[in-house]
């Protein structure tokens, strides 16, 4: 199955794309290791699809080069590249049945005996009995699998997926995420996956590149991106972050001490994406699930050494496994806290005075010169 | 009253159907007539004479064959040119694209009689001998806009990603066109071609102006109507009607079978 995967990495060197005066992709360097599941994550219009199309050859870069392994393919037309694409909304050929759709790539390369390969491939995506149907007779999830089979049968060095799950409903999407991950592990081909769904990117990919405004904001393993965002955009786009504007009291040691609206907070210097200077500003971030919540009467029970802020519950919503609270606090008007529903304290209702506390190790620091809300609206749009 | 209200749609439907079919029924019935005089306008008695000898009237089958030839060539010419124009208009941005877009529909909007007279003036001024070729040129011209309209609609509704997918799957430009673009545009092209054939075959006004001494089937019918209408005209008309209905039925059957071809 993996006879042609010894192709090597995908390397983008300084590629950019302009349309007239509009720059869709700023000069970009990216290396996608062979055999990895790589996600390009970003809101619509961030340049992720354009980047993908430049790898496919459907778009010619304005500058820079695209290499697959040792060979440069920048100016090769798409039909000469060992790369295949799963298109958004699948683009199955409506006049051909499923069998012929899957066989298309093999036939165009002049391969005569396609039957065994096509049958095997349809078996892999569990669509064997649908071979004679037309695409429009299949459900969305089935069409999606045909699109994957049609691309994979060519044993491409790289499989490109352009929002392949965008048209599916939530439940089916979850199922297909696991399915795609299984297929990728099975065939060992490099997958480059474009998506605006941060959860999808984190579930499936080994490495995620977060794109914004035609640039890669940050690149790394999902857990790394989530725990250590380097910009406010990444902090807000991947999950939810509470960002508190604070003034640096003390820096230089292994811990940084900051103050915000009377509360003194500590965080590890190693988790700051910028070098904090005493007297300067810093954005202090903490994820909602890292915080704990106690009623103000029980402030004494909070262990020493934890970061503490006071506030009032503005809203709470019960969602089964957890309860999500919005806390109005002097340090930030809308702090979000997720509390596991293990033992529910009936006093924690809107209006109650509370104390939030968390381990200083779970705090990260960001450069205060950025837009604190970057990436927030785009998440809502994408959801 | 209630019965009427419930069945009003059906009654209207049947009424409309009768309105459309009745003329064809009359043509068919009178093809079995044995008229008393030269005119086939009054029912006399049942006869199969005309059906046994459809070419029994002088020049009838000659004109019919000429009309068929012109229709076939006009269809081919208009379909090839019209398809190319439609693709150009949808796919490429060129100077005067807007102008071409509206000019192409001019023959549809222009009164046919005006176009006929103008064409005659053009041919005479250029010193072209009127006949088969002038008829053909005229027919290709007015069929063209219908082909462009039909194909353009189809190409416009086509997902450009399908061609990208073909290129992505190792089909070069020629293969992409032959294997994906053309088959998907085919229904539009076929519709344009059928329309062209029908329009060309029974065109009278433009043909009459630009034919010189050549006589097509519609002109033959017109000419003979002055002196008497042979039953054979009804025979040809009925035969054409039956063939057209058969073509439609076969097309629908094939389409349905293809749609229902789902192995269980």
Automatic annotation (TrEMBL), chain A:
It catalyses: ATP + H2O + polyamine-[polyamine-binding protein]Side 1 = ADP + phosphate + polyamineSide 2 + [polyamine-binding protein]Side 1. Signal peptide: none annotated. SMART domains: AAA (SM00382). Residues 10-238 form the ABC transporter domain. SUPFAM superfamilies: MOP-like, P-loop containing nucleoside triphosphate hydrolases. Belongs to the ABC transporter superfamily. Spermidine/putrescine importer (TC 3.A.1.11.1) family. This is Spermidine/putrescine import ATP-binding protein PotA. It comes from Streptomyces flavotricini.
From TrEMBL, chain B:
Belongs to the binding-protein-dependent transport system permease family. CysTW subfamily. It comes from Streptomyces flavotricini. The chain crosses the membrane at residues 7-32, 70-90, 102-124, 130-151, 180-201, 231-250. The keyword Transmembrane applies. The lineage of its organism: Bacteria, Bacillati, Actinomycetota, Actinomycetes, Kitasatosporales. This is ABC transporter permease. It is found in: Cell membrane. Residues 64-251 form the ABC transmembrane type-1 domain. Keywords: Cell membrane, Membrane, Transmembrane, Transmembrane helix, Transport. It is a multi-pass membrane protein.
């Amino acid at each position: 199955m993996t006879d042609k995967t010894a192709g090597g990495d995908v390397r983008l060197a300084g590629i950019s794309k302009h349309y007239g005066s509009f720059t869709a992709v700023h000069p970009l360097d990216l290396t996608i290791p062979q055999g990895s599941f790589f996600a390009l994550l970003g809101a619509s219009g961030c340049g992720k699809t354009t980047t993908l199309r430049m790898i496919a050859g459907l778009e010619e870069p304005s500058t820079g080069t695209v290499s697959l392994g040792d060979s440069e393919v920048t100016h090769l037309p798409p039909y000469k590249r060992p790369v295949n694409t799963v298109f958004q909304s699948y683009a199955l050929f409506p006049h051909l049945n499923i069998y012929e759709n899957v066989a298309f790539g093999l036939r165009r390369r002049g391969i005569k005996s396609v039957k065994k390969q096509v049958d095997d491939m349809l078996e892999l995506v569990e669509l064997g009995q649908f071979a004679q149907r037309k695409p429009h007779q299949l459900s969305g999830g089935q069409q999606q699998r045909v699109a994957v089979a049609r691309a994979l049968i060519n044993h491409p060095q790289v499989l490109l997926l352009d929002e392949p799950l965008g048209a599916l409903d939530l439940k089916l999407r979850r199922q297909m995420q696991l399915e795609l991950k299984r297929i990728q592990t099975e065939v060992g081909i490099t997958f480059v996956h474009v998506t605006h769904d941060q959860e999808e990117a984190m579930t499936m990919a080994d490495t995620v590149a977060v794109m914004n405004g035609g640039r890669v904001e940050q690149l790394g393993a999902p857990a790394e991106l989530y725990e250590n965002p380097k910009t406010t955009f990444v902090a807000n786009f991947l999950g939810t972050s509470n960002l508190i504007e604070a003034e640096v009291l003390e820096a230089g040691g292994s811990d940084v001490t900051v103050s915000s609206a009377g509360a003194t907070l500590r965080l590890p210097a190693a988790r700051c994406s910028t070098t904090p200077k005493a007297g300067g500003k810093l954005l202090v971030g903490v994820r909602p699930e890292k915080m704990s919540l106690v009623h103000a009467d029980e402030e004494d029970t909070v262990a020493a050494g934890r970061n503490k802020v006071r506030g009032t519950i503005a809203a709470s919503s019960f969602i089964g496994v957890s309860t999500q609270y919005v806390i109005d606090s002097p340090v930030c008007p809308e702090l979000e806290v997720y509390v596991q529903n293990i033992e529910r304290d009936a006093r924690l209702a809107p209006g109650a005075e509370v104390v939030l506390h968390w381990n200083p190790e779970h705090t990260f620091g960001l450069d205060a010169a950025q837009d604190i809300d970057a990436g927030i609206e785009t998440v809502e749009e994408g959801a | 009253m209630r019965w009427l209200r419930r069945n009003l749609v059906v009654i209207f439907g049947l009424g409309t159907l009768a309105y459309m079919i009745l003329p064809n029924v009359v043509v068919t019935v009178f093809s079995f007539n044995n008229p008393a005089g030269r005119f086939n306008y009054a029912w006399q008695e049942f006869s199969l004479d005309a059906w046994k000898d459809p070419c029994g009237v002088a020049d009838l089958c000659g004109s019919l064959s000429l009309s068929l030839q012109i229709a076939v060539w006009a269809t081919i010419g208009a379909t090839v040119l019209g398809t190319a124009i439609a693709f150009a208009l949808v796919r490429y941005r060129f100077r005067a694209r807007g102008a071409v877009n509206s000019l192409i529909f001019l023959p549809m909007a222009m009164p046919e009689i005006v176009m006929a007279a103008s064409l005659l003036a053009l041919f005479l001024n250029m010193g072209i001998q009127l006949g088969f070729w002038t008829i053909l040129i005229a027919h290709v011209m007015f069929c063209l806009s219908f082909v462009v309209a039909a194909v353009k609609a189809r190409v416009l509704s086509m997902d450009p990603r399908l061609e990208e997918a073909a290129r992505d799957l190792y089909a070069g430009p020629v293969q992409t066109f032959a294997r994906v673009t053309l088959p998907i545009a085919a229904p539009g092209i076929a519709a344009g071609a059928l329309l062209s054939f029908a329009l060309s075959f029974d065109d009278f006004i433009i043909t009459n102006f630009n034919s010189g001494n050549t006589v097509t089937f519609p002109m033959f019918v017109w000419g003979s109507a002055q002196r008497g209408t042979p039953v054979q005209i009804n025979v040809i008309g009925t035969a054409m009607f039956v063939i057209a209905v058969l073509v439609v039925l076969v097309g629908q059957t094939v389409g349905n079978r293809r749609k229902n071809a789902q192995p269980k």
